[in-house]
Specification:
Elements: H1 17-27, H2 32-37, H3 41-57, H4 62-75, H5 81-91, H6 96-104, H7 111-125, H8 132-140, H9 145-168
Helix pairs in contact: 3-9, 4-5, 4-6, 4-7, 4-9, 7-8
């Protein structure tokens, strides 16, 4: 296995130092994902930008953001991002029932959120080659064409983090270790 460096501000490439300093200010620490991504300042900058835009500039509320993020994290079996987004959901005051349903792949508390999870999974599994009927079902659940495209943005952000964590086997950050996760064994 190729080993990737968990950079500190001091060891990071020059262009990544201000990005890691920003992470330290925002989190009180440098998350392991950012420490790994620092080897590529462009990747770290792009990831941080997409995360900010998805979290702050889309029309999704905190529950919907969590559904998109965790649906992708669980589907990609990201050992790092599922615990991280469980902790983020707690900070955002998302109902624990939503987080548990996403982590355990059990039904969500309402049909609206379940429709979002279903559509997000279809987009990931079908590589966006969804049918008109699938899009219409999503729209009929109360979502918009704008949100169809915002799911694409969420997928782009999560591909960057999930893939990096698979490559680097990024260790789960201490504050998120309480939310450690493994994909449940298939039923049957």
């Amino acid at each position: 296995m190729t080993e990737f460096t968990l950079h500190t501000i001091e060891s990071a490439p020059e262009a990544s130092k201000p990005l890691l300093e920003d992470s330290l200010k925002g989190f009180g620490r440098v998350p392991g994902l950012h420490a790994v991504m620092a080897d590529s300042p462009a990747l770290l900058d792009g990831y941080k930008y997409l995360h900010r835009v998805f979290a702050q500039d889309t029309s999704f509320d905190k529950d919907e953001l969590t559904v998109v993020w965790q649906t992708i994290n669980v589907e990609h079996e990201c050992h790092y991002c599922v615990p991280a987004h469980t902790g983020i959901a707690k900070m955002m005051k998302v109902d624990d029932a939503i987080s548990e349903a996403l982590r355990n792949e059990t039904p969500l508390p309402n049909d609206h959120l379940e429709a979002l999870r279903t559509f997000t999974l279809q987009m990931v599994r079908q590589r966006s080659d969804v049918t008109d009927a699938q899009v219409q079902t999503f729209l009929d659940a109360g979502f918009t064409k704008q949100q169809v495209l915002e799911v694409v943005l969420g997928i782009a952000q999560k591909v960057m983090s999930n893939y990096t964590n698979h490559l680097a086997e990024t260790p789960v950050d201490k504050p998120m270790q309480a939310f450690a996760w493994e994909k449940a064994a298939p039923k049957g």
